[in-house]
Amino acid sequence: xxxxxxxxxxxxxxxxxxxxxxxxxxxxxxxxxxxxxxxxxxxxxxxxxxxxxxxxxxxxxxxxxxxxxxxxxxxxxxxxxxxxxxxxxxxxxxxxxxxxxxxxxxxxxxxxxxxxxxxxxxxxxxxxxxxxxxxxxxxxxxxxxxxxxxxxxxxxxxxxxxxxxxxxxxxxxxxxxxxxxxxxxxxxxxxxxxxxxxxxxxxxxxxxxxxxxxxxxxxxxxxxxxxxxxxxxxxxxxxxxxxxxxxxxxxxxxxxxxxxxxxxxxxxxxxxxxxxxxxxxxxxxxxxxxxxxxxxxxxxxxxxxxxxxxxxxxxxxxxxxxxxxxxxxxxxxxxxxxxxxxxxxxxxxxxxxxxxxxxxxxxxxxx
Length: 367
What we know:
By secondary structure, the protein is an alpha+beta fold. Helix content is 25%, strand content 22%. Strands 4, 5, 6, 7, 9, 17 and 20 form a seven-stranded mixed beta sheet that branches. Helix 2 crosses helix 4 (110-122). It is globular and about 60 Å long.
């Protein structure tokens, strides 16, 4: 099976005819049946590892170190660190996800939890800002915003989140509180989905390799426009990546009259991609428990969340903490990603939302 490609570069976003063998052989190309009974991606913190985390939290706090200054070098985890390094390798070179269970959120206060989470995350990668306020830790909780407003970031509502990626290499989600009902997380291999499209509808695979227009929803980096072009299916050398966020494509169509309207083929390709992601053939569900940390590699996985109902008491409402991370040895990406990720060469942290005049911060409460 061949993927139509048109850019004569070593890093391509749809160029010359390339065989799909590199896509098929990627460990991150899996379907739900491949993972049935496989718990190799789930790791439970031992009591000794938990004590090590809490000791690092106490040392960081005693030194007066701001949370946003915590790094892998300053947050010492001599016992847990090698495991986190293996998790990072699994994310980047393996199946693309891991679940670290058992962080003792019930016996730590909010600041201690955030220190622990930021410190653990720093062993995976460098935290990146997630919104126009520069938040390095995102609060994924219902703030009462309207999910039907195209300007709304859906994570700030209780509405359903469609399958998507975040604008970073690795996303981490730490569960503090579960919802009263609903809110289940699901994930799937985006590589398996684009392979299926190439096999079933090669005409639509070619469409996915061409640019779609995404809305920045008012979070505009220096020198950039309010919207940007980005293909969904990319290839860089022998590595394939997928960038997909339907809400941001639809928002651009709703908010900007000066951009091309989606063609019939584009709509069909988007619909097929979502249809496959929602199929039990491709996705698995993750049951979050308080203290669970889910880590996902955005370039090879899509994730979603069903709508949920909250408890009436504020202290019991669904609440996750999110990290966007840039690992030291990330997946190679084509130049097209610079429109969203910033510079992607030279070993500097990449990804996130960097708005002029905004310094990265850690907000202790949802804002």
